[in-house]
Specification:
This protein is α/β, with parallel strands linked by helices. Helices cover about 35% and strands about 25% of the residues. The chain is built from ten helices and ten strands. Strand 1 and strand 2 form a beta hairpin. It is globular.
Length: about 270
């Protein structure tokens, strides 16, 4: 029988309703060919909360993250086992009958290194909308502005929307990629070490943005920076060698972890 980590109220939030799961992994395993990268992971991702994945390099954090939007489908020989249930419709995202393109419409991803398209700022944000068949210029203009505002970039680019995206700074390019991800109104955002290539000022800007975005979208983030996980996340999962070692409220994980392996990693004795 699968046991999913159950939601807990956040510290100081006794009057706040317990969050509902937005997604649940049930017995999730994943293999690259003959190598098993993930082993029987049962975990809930809570709605409109930030969940951080931490652990040493090669522990399976990014592999786990990429299961949610079926990125592994792009390469032959990869194999999923188990389920990822996505709510409120209780869809199994890994069902072979579920179109991965539709999954990626509902679950957007921001990568480690900013990857704007070789197009204008405007066309980068509008791209996903055009793929969805949106053609009305008024609608495109409204959605592009909304997404850029949500990514805290509008005031910096509103007078040069038709400049090439490559002319932006590194931090601005990453926020542009976030705007592009937000334009299609996803239900969940995946961040794969989104600040690892940025300077401290740009990093602080992205972290502040993540904190604001959780009011409207569920966020799952991979980070090697434990201080970042402590700053931005509500829940934290510690992974090692493809296994989920411990999952809980971030303050509990960092202040009073239940597993010695977690404590050793948090305190720097390991990893």
């Amino acid at each position: 029988m699968v046991t999913i980590a159950m939601p807990q109220a956040l510290p100081g939030a006794s009057s706040t309703p317990v969050p509902l799961p937005k997604a649940e992994t049930r017995g999730l395993s994943f293999s690259y060919g003959t190598f098993q990268a993930l082993q029987h992971i049962d975990m809930a991702i809570y709605e409109r909360r930030v969940t951080a994945l931490i652990g040493p390099s090669g522990c399976g954090k990014s592999t786990f993250l990429r299961c949610f939007n079926r990125m592994h489908d792009l390469y032959p020989g990869n194999r999923y086992e188990g389920e990822i249930r996505f709510f409120p419709d209780n869809t199994n995202l890994l069902d072979p009958h579920v179109d991965p393109i539709e999954v990626r419409m509902r679950i957007s991803m921001v990568f480690q290194k900013a990857n704007p398209f070789p197009k204008s700022i405007y066309e980068n944000v509008a791209y996903g909308l055009r793929v969805r068949g949106v053609k009305r210029r008024v609608t495109l203009d409204e959605k592009v502005e909304e997404a850029l505002r949500d990514a805290a970039l509008w005031d910096e680019v509103k007078d040069r929307l038709y400049d090439l995206a490559f002319n932006l700074s590194g931090g601005q390019q990453q926020r542009l990629c976030i705007a592009r991800a937000l334009a299609t109104d996803p239900e969940m955002l995946l961040f794969d070490e989104p600040t690892s290539a940025l300077d401290p000022i740009a990093t602080a800007s992205i972290e502040e943005l993540i904190t604001e975005l959780k009011n409207r979208v569920t966020i799952l983030i991979v980070t090697h920076n434990m201080q970042q996980a402590a700053r931005v996340s509500d829940y934290t999962a510690y992974m090692y060698l493809g296994k989920l070692i411990e999952f809980g409220i971030t303050d509990d994980i960092f202040i009073k972890p239940k597993r010695k392996e977690t404590e050793d990693y948090i305190t720097g004795r390991f990893g």
